[in-house]
Specification:
CATH superfamily of the largest domain: Spore Coat Polysaccharide Biosynthesis Protein SpsA, Chain A
Distance between the termini: 43 Å
Strand content: 15-25%
CATH topology of the largest domain: Spore Coat Polysaccharide Biosynthesis Protein SpsA, Chain A
Structural class: alpha/beta
Strand order of the largest sheet: 1-4-3-2-5-9-7-10-6
Helix content: 25-40%
Length: about 325
C-alpha cells in the first residue's frame, strides 16, 4: 500500500528510508528528528516502510503527515526483514541520494546537511557516526550500534548511498533477508562492498551524527550471536573483507586467542607447559574495562566470556563448513 503526501512539485535531492517492524514510539522519535533537520525541507523526503502485523505505525505516520514540514510517505508490506523494506523504499524514492537509518535511531539536526556535503565526484557511499543515545547506562547486556570511524560493516543505521551506485549494485541482496531459510543479516555489508567493488569511493562523515537506542539484551542472545553465521559467506563473496579480520582468518583477536587456548588445553594432556597458551586469552578478556569486577574477580569475566567465545567459535566452524570459507 502506498500513502503519499507532498509528491507534487520538484523532486527532493535526498530520500530518507526507514524500515520498521512494530515499535511505533521509536518510529515517532525517528520521524520527528527528521522534521527537525536544518536542511531546506523541500530538499528531502521521508519514506517509512512498515511491515508490522498491525496498523499502529501506519496510524502514527498518517497522524504525523498532517504536521510534516517535508514530504512524508508510507509504504506497507509483509514482514521479510529490513533489506527488502529498504529496497522497496529505494524503488519509490525520488531523490538522487538515499539516506538510510533505522527506526530505533534519532538523527541530529545537521545529519542530512553534513552527510550530503561529504559527497564528491566518485563517492558512492558515505558512512555517518553513530553513538548510543546519551544518558542511558551501558552494560554487558545492552545492545546498540556504535560507529566512530569508517568500518567494514557499513551499518544501515546511518549511511548514505548515491542512488545510481545503489541501483548499479542491485540494492540489497534478497538472499540475506530474514525470511531466507539459509542466512540472516549481512545485506548491509554485502551492498557496501559491492558498491566499492564497482569502483565507487567511500567516505566517513564524523559530523553526520545519529543516536541509536540502547536496548536490553537477554543472556541467551549475548551468548549465542546468530548474525555471526553469515560472516564466512561474506568473506567468500568479498575476499577484501579479510583485511579487517585478525590474521585474515579470525573474526577478531579474542577468537584467535580462544583457539590458541583450546590448542593449549589439548597439548597439556601431554605436557602441562602448554597451558601457557591460555595466557593470551585470559589477558585479552581479563584486562578489558569493567564497572563492577575488580582484582581477582576479573576471572569471573573471563569465565563468562569463554562461554560466549566458545559458542561463537562453534557458530563460525558450522558456517565455515556450510559456506566452504574458513573464518574462526
Amino acid at each position: 500500500m502506498l500513502n503519499d503526501t507532498s509528491q507534487d512539485g520538484p523532486a527532493p535531492y535526498v530520500s530518507v528510508v526507514i524500515p520498521t517492524f512494530k515499535e511505533p514510539e521509536c518510529v515517532r522519535k525517528a520521524i520527528l528528528s527528521l522534521f527537525g533537520q536544518d536542511l531546506d525541507k523541500s530538499r528531502y523526503e521521508v519514506i517509512v516502510v512498515d511491515s508490522s502485523p498491525d496498523d499502529r505505525v501506519a496510524a502514527l505516520v498518517t497522524e504525523l503527515q498532517a504536521e510534516a514540514p517535508c514530504a512524508l510517505r508510507l509504504l506497507t508490506k509483509h514482514a521479510e526483514g529490513p533489506g527488502p523494506s529498504r529496497n522497496l523504499g529505494a524503488s519509490q524514492a525520488r531523490g538522487d541520494i538515499l539516506a538510510l537509518m533505522d527506526s530505533d535511531c534519532e538523527a541530529t539536526p545537521h545529519w542530512l546537511e553534513h552527510g550530503l556535503a561529504a559527497f564528491a565526484d566518485g563517492v558512492g557511499l558515505v558512512q555517518g557516526r553513530t553513538l548510543p543515545e546519551p544518558g542511558v547506562p551501558l552494560g554487558i547486556f545492552t545492545w546498540y550500534v556504535n560507529v566512530e570511524g569508517e568500518n567494514h560493516v557499513y551499518e544501515c543505521a546511518n549511511i548514505f548511498y548515491r542512488r545510481c551506485a545503489f541501483e548499479q549494485a542491485g540494492g540489497f541482496d534478497m538472499a540475506y533477508n530474514d525470511a531466507s531459510d539459509r542466512v540472516r543479516g549481512g545485506e548491509d555489508v554485502d551492498l557496501a562492498w559491492t558498491v566499492k567493488r564497482n569502483g565507487w569511493k567511500s567516505r566517513f562523515c564524523h559530523d553526520a551524527l545519529m543516536y541509536h537506542e540502547v536496548q536490553p539484551m537477554s543472556i541467551a542472545r549475548w551468548i549465542y550471536v546468530k548474525p555471526l553465521f553469515i560472516w564466512p559467506l561474506l568473506a567468500r563473496r568479498h575476499p577484501e573483507l579479510r583485511r579487517a579480520f585478525f590474521a585474515r582468518y579470525f573474526f577478531d583477536r579474542h577468537q584467535a586467542c580462544i583457539v590458541l587456548a583450546l590448542i593449549g588445553l589439548l597439548l597439556a594432556l601431554a605436557t602441562p607447559l602448554a597451558l601457557v597458551m591460555c595466557v593470551p586469552y585470559i589477558a585479552s578478556r581479563g584486562v578489558e574495562p569493567t564497572r563492577t569486577l575488580r582484582g581477582p574477580l576479573r576471572l569471573l569475566r573471563v569465565a563468562a566470556y569463554a562461554l560466549h567465545d566458545l559458542t561463537s567459535l562453534a557458530v563460525f566452524i558450522a558456517a565455515s563448513v556450510r559456506f566452504r570459507s574458513l573464518l574462526l
